[in-house]
Amino acid sequence: MSTPWLVIGLGNTGARYAHNRHNIGHMVLDVLAGRTGSRLSSHKTRALVAEARLGILPGGAPGPRVVLARTSGYMNESGGTVKALVRFYDVDPAASLLVIHDDLDLPAHTLRLKRGGGEGGHNGLRSISKALGTKDYARLRIGVGRPPGRQDPADFVLSDFPGRERAELAVTLEQAADAVEQVVLDGFVPAQQRLHSA
User: Which pLDDT band, with edges at 50, 70 and 90, does 120 fall under?
Assistant: First the structure.
């Protein structure tokens, strides 16, 4: 059987962080789990994991196998968990790993697919790249915008989305889940071209 896609949503664990901008990766994972009718449960890698099939193939057959994983612990320690997941599921990061994360450098609610390159100051990505020994893996970047005025970026990403953005956030989460489905069903490059031309 072919190797599954390993789709990882980044964030911090705990109720106080649940609705933070920094936790948008976790939020997308929850949407994906809901779409697949699967339940995220504790795993020996210290992540919450669900194994499922995502999307529908032509003819109506269930889509490819995926492993959905929400990191546990703190964002800046994501690397150990991701490395353990990659080893456990025998995934080639360059071929079948997709990491979902917040991005300060994109306007709020903007989606971009990227493979490789730098981490843009994102501590979760930096931890993952260091643990894996490579930056060559796919990322779904979800823009959260820049902090207003002189607010510290760390304080900004660790704050909740304001009420006025909640409706737009719900749309963004669905669009992000759509982008993940397209990567899994069609491949990274076609999904990237479709997302960036929208």
Answer: confident
